């Protein structure tokens, strides 16, 4: 073999051997362990990061979700490790500043739609794990969401520095959060990772959580996040720990309530994936916070109503989807609701379609959640269980109901099976339909 050919062959064999050796070498010391990555994924799930940082039909964590606030719409950012469109250039310290303190890599302030006030209580270990998982296991997406544009003065991000002084923060927990005892672990989940107070605690005119009213209920994007303190009247004081665990795992507890809207998303993306130990820890903690009696609900929401025993008035006449004349509440119910919930309101035998009596949504003194459910329906997956109810808004594939018809059927259902006639008006439904129902409680 000529010398030149022999030298080329030796070089190729040497390079190939080096590549094989490198591929068989142990991971570098700076590469995160499988255990750290698994922990980071669990922290991201408990923190429900995907719910806000993924727009409908969008790629995971690429941002673009529009969140309504009294000052305008906040658009979530891309938190994939793409270096130009996401957080790929963030150091771990810069990431910690963002998650715990609401300060971006460029030094500007985040809006508190990102719940950094709650995340400020995260342990160092959990922040580190979350950073490692986002940087190593999440697929980069080269998309930049539209910029957030708020009304003055909120459009000046520097004003968030003043807001932060009013809102305060939580001192980070210390130690390994996985080793906390049951109640401490439950408190950590409720206050930091799951940030329950972000939705369920009422806010003042400065949009900070009202001190001393933790989990007492608050309006949210047209929905109402109810009082979940252990109050025997306005809250969930009649629920057992197992009841609350079942609700967090599946989004439904027969005879009590079911999750839709934002809470349905929490169940689907977050709580249904928690361990049994964490679900029991979270439930046990919530059920021992100070009870707050609701300003409106003075009777347990789940205790209203009974099976309706009246003649079936349905005629068998089909209703066209383009029918223009409006029906009263009872006829709207019979035409659109009775097929699943029963003409007597008892639901299906397997509880897939829930009973409308002994139902926390129908028994509430606030009609908000029932209106929003009729408008937008339910589409929730928890484990292998998929709960679905079509909406009846202008995008409906089954029947598009007018504002007056939705008001009528809500009044009928709440009068017949729940807390009474709340005199819901077509104007009220129109406001909620248009997304203008956000307000400071």
UniProtKB/TrEMBL annotation:
Gene Ontology CC annotations of this record: plasma membrane
Primary location group: membrane
Keywords: Cell membrane, Heme, Iron, Membrane, Metal-binding, Repeat, Signal
UniProt-annotated binding residues for heme c 3: 337, 340-341
Residues bound to heme c 2: 196, 199-200
Residues involved in heme c 1 binding: 49, 52-53
Subcellular location: Cell membrane
Name of the protein this chain belongs to: Fructose dehydrogenase cytochrome subunit
Signal peptide: 1-29
MF terms (GO), sorted A to Z: electron transfer activity; heme binding; iron ion binding; oxidoreductase activity, acting on CH-OH group of donors
Segments forming domain Cytochrome c: 35-138, 181-290, 324-417
Gene3D superfamilies, sorted: Cytochrome c-like domain
SUPFAM superfamilies reported for this sequence: Cytochrome c (SSF46626)
Coiled-coil annotated residue ranges, if any: none
Cofactor detail note: Binds 3 heme c groups covalently per subunit.
Gene: fdhC
Cited InterPro entries: Cyt_c-like_dom (IPR009056), Cyt_c-like_dom_sf (IPR036909), Cytochrome_c-type_DH (IPR051459), Membr-bd_ADH_cyt_c (IPR014353)
